[in-house]
Amino acid sequence: MKQKNSFFSRLFLLVWGILSTFQVMANAETPQDNLEKYDSIEVSLLTCSPHEEIYSLYGHTALRWHDLHQSGPSAGNDIAFNWGIFNFNKPYFVLRFVFGLTDYELGIMPFQYFCTYYEKWGSSVTEQVLNLSNEEKMKLEAALQENLQPENRIYRYNYFYDNCSTRPRNIIEECINGKVEYAQREDYTPSYREMVGVCTRNHPWGTFGNDILLGIKADFKTDMRQQEFLPDNLLYDFDRAQIYADGTYRPLVKERRMVVLPGVQIIEKDFPLTPTECAVVLLIVALLLRGLEWKLKKVFVWWDVLLMLAQGLAGCVLFAMIFSQHPTTSLNLQILLLNPLPLFFIPSIIRGKKTKWQNLLLVLVVLFFIGSLFQHYAEGMLILALSLLSRFRR
Predict the structure, then answer these.
(1) pTM above 0.85, yes or no
(2) CA–CA separation, 142 vs 17, rounded Å?
(3) What are 149-185's pLDDT values in tens digits?
């Protein structure tokens, strides 16, 4: 749902900003009721299908502002407004993203350049031409110019609640003279986890990454507005939405076009083993070593330390997610299994001292299994729990 930043987009933003300033000055000298110039303006919602880059598995949304005039100062003005600009090279980008501290910004670029970008990746671009009055277009133009101001165009991105799909929706709704009424879907109340799982269904390790970080709140049912964080859901809802004003209804979308046809996508292979297969391999190794220990009547301390180190380091990540600004990560029952506690017992285990870690591990694993009744765990986590439980000794 994002697009990498580029020098070109920033340069175009600067030039368009200067031109917009002169346009605003010109509008100030024109009576507000002179709205004929907006007859030639088309405003559209653009929905881009996913491609194989990890940041684009969920699709993308933007706005198109198109002046159909063939003459005059704004003739052919065709611009895409994109709330998904980010700089992947910014220090600690992934870490900041995980903790909900990523800043995105509104950028603008020629519509043709926008389409070329997605055509190169094999993504389709669907255009929904909005059924706006001239007054609504004027209000939207002012709102877009306001959003482009340096102090406004950067915003704190939140994947589920404030992203490049919800921002265009919100600015459109704010400029409607009336109320946008959406058609409710019957029997469609997926959780956030289920929706992102559909997007990453061809990438099991991507799904695993999402599921390991998302907590119990991601398993709650969602309503229609919450579902619109995904571009495809917003497209679906816009197609069926009506604008209610002064006792009459009109469709929100007056025309739908496919401006970029789907192309060929290069699908890179993930790690050859799925999370479940890796967990099964680990369980087999754990059971074999357990059997060897029984036969040799000795304890492989090195294996205990290795498992505890991996468990503790992974647990540090889940513990840190408690402080993330993503609300759906704060309460994650998988922390019962993956937590920093084993790190504190490793020195005693190495020195051969008796500890209470074995009893504590048993309690945590039992609670972890109980927690699976309330939260969907990442693939293979229950098998991993059995591998850790195999280290329990009286």
Answers:
(1) yes
(2) 12
(3) 999 999 988 889 999 999 999 999 999 999 999 998 9
- Number of domains comprising the chain: 2
63: containing domain: 3-260
Element (H, E) at 179: strand 179-181
How far, CA to CA in Å, does 353 sit from each of 14, 287, 305, 356, 363? 66, 24, 13, 10, 20
Q: Within this chain, do residues 24 and 129 fall inside the same structural domain, yes or no?
A: yes
Identify which of 95, 163, 156 has the alpha carbon closest to the alpha carbon of residue 323: 95
Pick from 263, 242, 239, 183: which is nearest to 47 by CA? 239
Q: Would you say the C-alpha torsion 65, 68, 69, 75 has a positive or negative sign? A: positive
Q: Tell me: do 253 and 281 sit in the same domain.
A: no
What are the contacts of 198-207 at 24+ separation with CB within 8 A?
199/50, 199/57, 199/58, 199/59, 199/230, 200/57, 202/267, 203/54, 203/57, 203/270, 204/270, 204/274, 204/275, 204/379, 205/270, 205/271, 205/274, 205/275, 206/54, 206/57, 206/270, 207/378, 207/379
Phi-psi region of 79 (alpha: psi -120 to 50; beta: other; left: phi over 0): beta
Which stretches does DSSP call E strand in 205-352?
242-245, 248-251, 253-260
- Tens of pLDDT, residue by residue over 218-234, are 999 999 999 999 999 99
Beta-carbon neighbour count of residue 265 at 10 Å? 13
Assigned token pair, 319: 């513990």
H or E element that contains 32: none
